[in-house]
TrEMBL record:
Subcellular location(s) per record: Cytoplasm
Keyword DNA repair: no
Function as written in the Swiss-Prot or TrEMBL entry: Phosphorylase is an important allosteric enzyme in carbohydrate metabolism. Enzymes from different sources differ in their regulatory mechanisms and in their natural substrates. However, all known phosphorylases share catalytic and structural properties. Allosteric enzyme that catalyzes the rate-limiting step in glycogen catabolism, the phosphorolytic cleavage of glycogen to produce glucose-1-phosphate, and plays a central role in maintaining cellular and organismal glucose homeostasis.
GO molecular function, one term: pyridoxal phosphate binding
One GO CC term, this protein: cytoplasm
Cofactor: pyridoxal 5'-phosphate
Name of protein: Alpha-1,4 glucan phosphorylase
CDD domains documented for this protein: GT35_Glycogen_Phosphorylase (cd04300)
Family: Belongs to the glycogen phosphorylase family.
Length: 813
């Protein structure tokens, strides 16, 4: 590991004082904690900018190849602590602030989570940016500067309530406005068919409206302080020229209305697509992102090049899921329409530059856009997509002359009552690399999701198993464990997580195991305080902390978990079977506002918690808690405090997961199905250090069509008792038949997510877990081996694989 380059802190205190006095106009004695947080962040930003400018000059001198990561989400989490750690100055700053009478921990607690993402997709993107900078590679993020995130979750009467999740983006100390680099984005209008001077077809996109993309940068400093890249976020603003024209016509209110409409583009993450207006806004949002990104990428390239001959040798673009798939059409439009390249040359450049990551096997998550909406919003792009598809189908006709059904399946345009653009197909056709995010997921992409494309282009498809940054998810989130590891094996693990393997030999050292276990308990005490503060429930840190923290979705099977809790309740209450060890079941996660069953499941969790936690006997052995508004700052407390990590999705439905990796690295034992990266975690930690249950992918696929949950129900009195309770007033009080839809989905509508099929196996695995937990030495060794053997799940490893196999990116130091 290169030595840490610590910045000069001699003027740090004066920078804070100057900020409070000259920016806020206050004496230090009047400054609030938030004022002081902003002052400290301002001083840190000053140091960051020195690194950022030096980094950019280094890249420019060498004319390096740059990778641009386009994503609708970047879930960065609070940045002050991360920046201090990566620059190696956290303790130095702590000492400076202490001399000023200030507490760094109090000030860091003032920082809100930036509302720039929702879940795993955005957190993965943030981990990748951290790894790129820590590996000294020129990799940059492109996203949207949302004013509001998905939503802020609160719980009222057991029900999820959504509130605006506003973060002070316009006053954030980390956002640096780049007003001189704004992008002009045309939208709407129509195509006029014209000819060029040689008589060739020359479509003119006319009568468009103009939206301005204003860029803001968040510096991303790598560990060691050598490199600072950037995350560039665009805010949507109405075109001044367009608005003033309407204003001059005397219609002030229409001018303001247009301005508001334009700026709605960057107001909120994922506007609801349940109505036509929402769907249109979501498409405009996706197009706005890629249009701004492509313009900016080309602008940066042309600073050092006079033509596009070197473009794909100097530029790599990664599409994070299908949201930025329009990059294919937008890059083609820019090259052909704006810069005058011939189609074939532009297409070669496009396909050699772009790469696509698939994140899902769920059909509803593979975006399709009705042609009518695409034609209304971006008519020129629809023309380009049609032409891409025409040429693609010609290729298919040559390769598969006697297979018209294959052409139908592979076409970018889906036929039917409402023709649609298949965004995943567009991304695959327009990219030179297509990857899944775990071994099983990549296999299923090739064999189940798009087998026709794999048959045509097997060389395009590859796997890049996800990873998480050890700086955020161990060094920062779990400082006690980080210190113990460093004291025991040195600090190389911070940039080479595989060196955690050296901890394995310490599993035979009783003194080390005792320290390891005590740190876990301290983390559980901290988590218990959070539960008391947010869920108003007292929990025992000596009980098993069994945690299910992720988006609420049927395929993630929080319902199966709740079924097991209800089963445990009845085993104690009716059969007098006392568990081997007390357990606290902890849930956290958001349900999409329009996802009725997911929101009902949150209500069920609270209904069960209300009954269980108030029962004098059962509550001695079982407690249930739901921590609202799951986000990065909460995850940093929840994950280190976990004994058990619930990763119980229906096999074949979770692409990878990254929460499973974060939990395992922090010494939690996984309870999981053979799904996503669970398979690779099981391979890494060994079968004795993970609890695998349920049917695997092949078995699930074989059961489809013939699966009858009624047979399982008829043969299991325990399942009958659990489901009858769900469908009774027991957990819903006066709200009769409240949970019938959950009961109905499982009993009467096929149990698509196989809850009943996996129930008994899940119960049996939980019994084994409880038995192992009471053997303190065995449990400590299991948890240690989870930490020691999961170094492979560092995002540094993932980025090295992308850099070497997809992007052609090199370290620049």
């Amino acid at each position: 590991m290169d030595s840490i380059i610590k910045p000069d802190l001699s003027g740090f205190e004066n920078t804070i004082r100057d900020y409070v006095r000259y920016v806020l106009g206050k004496p230090m004695t009047d400054a609030t904690s938030t004022d002081l947080f902003n002052g400290v962040s301002s001083a840190v930003r000053k140091l960051l900018m020195d690194i950022r400018i030096e980094t950019e000059q280094r890249y420019d001198r060498r004319d390096v190849k740059r990778m641009h990561y386009i994503s609708m989400e970047f879930l960065t989490g609070p940045l002050l602590a991360n920046n201090l750690l990566n620059m190696g100055i956290q303790e130095d700053v702590r000492a400076i602030l202490k001399n000023m009478g200030l507490d760094l921990d109090i000030l860091m607690a003032c920082e809100p989570d930036p509302s720039l993402g929702n879940g795993g997709l955005g957190r993965l993107a943030a981990c990748f940016l951290d790894s790129l900078a820590s590996l000294d590679m020129p990799g940059f993020g492109y996203g949207i500067n949302y004013d509001y995130g998905l939503f802020k979750q609160s719980i009222m009467g057991g029900y999820q309530r959504e509130k605006p999740d506003y973060w002070p983006s316009r006053s954030s100390p980390w956002l640096i406005a780049r007003s001189g680099e704004k992008c002009m984005v045309p939208v709407y209008g129509r195509i006029v068919d014209t000819e060029d001077i040689e008589g060739g077809y020359n479509p003119m996109w006319s009568e468009w409206k103009l939206v301005v993309g204003r860029p803001h940068d968040i510096p991303v400093v790598g560990y060691g302080g050598h490199t600072a890249n950037r995350l560039r976020l665009f805010s949507a603003w109405a075109s001044e020229d367009f608005d003033i024209q309407i204003f001059n016509e005397g219609d002030y209110f229409r001018a303001v209305e247009r301005k508001i409409s334009s700026e709605n583009i960057s107001k909120i993450l994922y506007p609801s697509d349940s109505q036509e207006a929402g769907r249109e806004l979501r498409l405009v949002q996706e197009y706005f992102l890629v249009a701004c990104a492509v313009q900016d990428i080309i602008r940066i390239y042309l600073k050092q090049h006079d033509d596009f001959n070197q473009f794909s040798k100097k530029v790599a673009i990664q599409l994070n899921d299908t949201h930025p798939a329009l990059t294919v059409a937008e890059l083609m439009r820019s090259l052909v329409d704006v810069h005058g390249l011939e189609w074939d040359n532009a297409w070669d450049i496009t396909t050699q530059t772009l790469a696509y990551t698939n994140h899902t096997l769920l059909p509803e998550a593979l975006e399709k856009w009705p042609l009518a909406i695409v034609e209304k919003v971006i008519p020129r792009h629809l023309q380009i997509i049609y032409e891409i598809n025409r040429r693609f189908l010609e290729t298919l006709t040559v390769n598969y002359p006697d297979d018209p059904q294959r052409l139908h399946r592979m076409s970018i345009i889906e036929e039917g009552d409402e023709k649609q653009v298949r965004m995943a197909h567009l991304a695959i056709v327009g990219s030179h690399s297509v990857n899944g995010v775990a071994k099983i997921h990549s296999h299923l992409v090739k064999t189940g999701l798009v087998p026709d494309f794999y048959d045509l282009w097997p060389e395009k498809f590859n796997n890049k198993t996800n990873g998480v940054t050890p700086r955020r998810w161990l060094l920062s989130a779990n400082p006690g464990l980080a210190r113990l590891i460093t004291e025991s094996i040195g600090d190389k693990w911070i940039v080479d997580l595989d060196t955690l393997k050296a901890l394995e030999s310490l599993g035979r050292d009783p003194a080390f195991l005792e320290k390891f276990s005590m740190i876990k308990r301290e983390n559980k005490v901290r988590l218990a305080r959070l539960i008391k503060k947010t869920a108003y429930i007292d929990v025992d840190p000596d009980s098993i902390f069994d945690i299910h923290a992720k988006r609420i979705h049927e395929y993630k099977r929080q319902f199966l978990n709740v079924m097991h809790i209800i089963h445990g309740y009845f085993m104690i209450q009716e059969e007098g079977v006392i568990p081997t060890a007390p357990r606290t079941y902890i849930f956290s996660g958001k349900a999409a506002p329009g996802y009725f069953l997911a929101k009902l499941l949150i209500r069920l969790i609270h209904g069960v918690a209300d009954v269980v936690n108030k029962d004098p006997l059962v509550s001695q052995w079982i407690k249930v808690a739901f921590i609202p508004d799951y986000k990065v700052s909460l995850a940093e407390i929840i994950i280190p405090g976990a004994d058990v990590s619930e990763q119980i999705s229906t096999a074949g439905m979770e692409a990878s997961g990254t929460g499973n990796m974060k939990f395992a690295i922090n010494g939690a034992v996984t309870m999981g199905t053979m799904d996503g990266a669970n398979i690779e975690i099981a391979e890494a930690v060994g079968p004795d250090n993970i609890y695998i249950f349920g049917h695997d992918v092949e078995e699930i696929q074989a059961m489809r069509g013939a699966y009858d949950p009624g047979k399982i129900l008829a043969q299991s009195p325990h399942i009958q008792r659990v489901l009858n309770a769900v469908n009774s007033p027991l957990f819903c009080g006066w709200e009769n038949d409240l949970f019938f839809p959950l009961f109905d989905a499982v009993v009467n509508h096929g149990d698509y997510y196989m809850n009943l099929a996996d129930f008994q196996s899940y119960v049996d695995a939980q019994v084994r877990l409880s038995g192992d937990y009471v053997d303190k030495k065995k449990w400590a060794q299991m948890t240690l081996l989870n930490t020691a053997r999961t170094g492979i799940f560092s995002s540094d490893r993932t980025i090295r694989e992308y850099a070497g196999e997809v992007w052609g990116l090199e370290r620049q130091i």
